[in-house]
Write a structure and sequence with these properties.
It contains 2 helices and 6 strands; from the N terminus they run H-E-H-E-E-E-E-E. It is an alpha+beta fold.
């Protein structure tokens, strides 16, 4: 009887350890969005601020949605070859929603 209690305790401890490791690993994974989805968020923010929707290119790589992270994107007026750098600072509480504060350089990229 004692052997089955010890075996049962070892199995329970193993299951708990595995569950805790799984929780720890999933908590450390950053949420990402596609670069095109992030560019849309940046364009939405700029359109709301200035009243005109710019063209925005944030590259090809997925963007990690991390609070206070900075992301550089190229911004231009539709139909224009003049491109400006922008820095978007992400704000999130760790949930599904996030916002951006966008600052566009005053001088075009050279």
């Amino acid at each position: 009887m004692r052997t089955s209690t010890v075996v049962s305790s070892v199995i329970t401890a193993s299951v708990l350890a595995t569950a805790l490791v799984g929780c720890t690993a999933s908590a450390s994974i950053d949420r990402t969005v596609s670069s095109s989805a992030f560019a849309t968020t940046v364009a939405d923010a700029l359109e709301k601020e200035v009243g005109m929707r710019p063209d925005v290119d944030c590259g090809d790589d997925a963007v990690s949605v991390v609070d206070q992270a900075e992301v550089h994107c190229d911004v231009s007026t539709p139909g224009s070859d003049v491109v400006y750098d922008s820095v978007s600072v992400i704000s999130t509480d760790g949930g599904d929603d996030y916002g951006v504060a966008v600052e566009v350089d005053s001088e075009p990229k050279g």
